[in-house]
Amino acid sequence: MAVDKLAFTGSTEVGKLVMAAASQSNLKKVTLECCCAGSRIFVEASIYDRFVERSVQLAQARVLGDPFEPKTSQGPQIDQDQLNKILELVESGKTEGAKLLCGGKRHGSRGYFVEPTVFAEVKDGMRIAREEIFGPVMQILKFDNVDQLIERANGALLC
């Protein structure tokens, strides 16, 4: 089967693999888009506590289930490997000192559901702030001024 072009949306790591594989075949055209999931959120110090509180309320109100059901606000992860990766990153957040406010566990015993998870007191050097999680894990980081925010955001290894 001839493939004229590949399109991929996801992590930088997998994007590089897709591009390398395409270049080794027939140098087909490749379109790559980095994921822009908003799991790492910078919040100004003056509203940080209120933002964190409201984020926890909204996370706890989410309905997990079949994504084709209208009442569902969060479906499962794609497979066991992704579920395990998310839970391992959650554990690293706890180990490195981020404050787990809600979630952080597998939901139920069927499917690949992860509870909506919110971390506060996240530091830039923590693994959960440096790696793409691709799951329902929110990391809330505090900033004091725009210059600091720009420097920190640009220093991340994410897309």
UniProtKB/TrEMBL annotation:
Give start and end of each Aldehyde dehydrogenase domain: 34-155
InterPro entries xref list: Ald_DH/histidinol_DH, Ald_DH_C, Ald_DH_N, Aldehyde_DH_dom
Q: Which Pfam families match?
A: Aldedh
Molecular function terms, GO-annotated: oxidoreductase activity, acting on the aldehyde or oxo group of donors, NAD or NADP as acceptor
PANTHER family the record matches = ALDEHYDE DEHYDROGENASE-RELATED (PTHR11699)
Q: What family name appears in the similarity comment?
A: Belongs to the aldehyde dehydrogenase family.
Descriptive protein name? GI12528
